[in-house]
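Notes on consecutive records. When two proteins share a document, each keeps its own sequence and its own token line. Never mix them. Below: protein one.
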Amino acid sequence: MKQQTITAVNLSDTELGEIRGLIEQRSAILFDASRERFFSTRVREHLEERGLASGTALLRQIRGSSIEYEALLERLLTQETSFVRYPAVFDALDKKILPEVQERKFWENPRSLRIWSAGCSTGEEPYSIAITVCESLKFAEAWEIEILATDISRRALRHAERGLYSKRSIQNLSLPQAETYFSDTKHGFQVKPRIRRMISFAQMNLSESVYVGKLDCIFCMNVLMYFSDERRLAILRRFYDALEPGGYFFLGHSETLTNVPVKFEPVVVGGCRIYRKIALAESRRAALMMEGSL
């Protein structure tokens, strides 16, 4: 039996710095000091897989091939996820946000609901949103529903568009939910067409300004940490502008908008902190009340 030769990897801090700089230059994604161990481990794994002996060889490869560059970026951005990964988030969507949207837009024609999953990875988040909408929104079939799901990773998006998942991925769903929204196949659990039609998948880098229209709710969980403070603020401002007055914004459970000059109102629902764009009428009413107290 032929033994596989393992290439001895030589990876210096200087080479790591050059790789990090190239990624930030091309994709605006920053792996700062807080993720140093993760970054160096993933780069080293990539070198071993590609049979490269040094960071210099990797730099030469990714500079010369966009395919090789994307392959490295895929490895660095891959995160494990699952359906309804943070139950409190979907509870807030179910019990707070969707009832408000339904009340505010009930008499509109057409009634529309637009939600953005920014950094959707392999699709578990937007499909979880779609399931929650189906179960929470009364007469959902009478609404024009669009869930925009974007990610920088083409490979993750291909997985998401297939809509095929393992039993482990859907373990947080109830048995009735699994039976209602998935088909049990020999290859795994397939999202049913009814749910898949609610979602539009698109490749997007959040650092690039792209018009997405007005939205009722934006999910951007555990994504902004990959950007510098300056780019993070620019992205947050675009999110704010894209939200309808009264719309809501979700961050990851360990992320916060403290000391960020964007006028979101923090709202706590159960064990979940979310952020609301104050409606113009509310802002004017607050201003008038302040004037009256002077």
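Protein two starts on the next line and is unrelated to protein one.
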Amino acid sequence: MAVKLDQSPCCRGHNKRSILRPGRILIACLLVLVGLRLFVLLPVRVVSESMLPTLYIGDILLADITCYVLRLPFFHTRILNTGSPQRGDIVLFAYPLDKRQVYLKRIIGLPGDVVVLKDHSLFLNGKQVIVQPACIRDRAALHSKEHFTWEGKERFGDRDHAVMFDGDGSADRATRRFKVPAGAYFVLGDNRDHSVDSRKWGFVPNENLIGRPFVILFSWDTSRHRVEWARTGMNIH
């Protein structure tokens, strides 16, 4: 016996809504992702060794672009200041000499600070910043074939971060003093002997700050051509 299906207008409308629902959910998810990309988060790819041993070439980071300032998308107009960088923050900023370029460095000096660099020692407002040695390794393991390096832990307040120095005596030994002006910051790379930073081109104006990377979204080992799963998902300090 044949069974006749009920194809009333009510049922047809219900079926149509069921078909459209996944599409609406997908569109809503896409809108949320676009909103996050425009207003909150920015993916960043590491392309230099200047932040070794903290960040590697091939790391893809996720940066919070609302932690210091809110900007109008596309026009980059500042709407509201939301916070101030702290010593030890890794920041994303527009390069002061060419704002089309984006740099990653660590904030060392705040407005009004006096920063002195002597050999491998860092002095902040007259006090030496202590570095605890961690290990010595061949730079070949860090994408370079020159020199041996030593790593250490540098501390600002109750926060530690890794730094790296050449161990063969080839570093610049000159003593240099910097007074950080109002509305600007002094930044260094963690790879202290292989970073072009405030020692070379000066201070980062507050208006150049873009955001702060907080997690390694994905990491690709460029020398072994494989995913670095151990680094993927790591918080950035």
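For the record: The helical segments are 9-39, 198-201.
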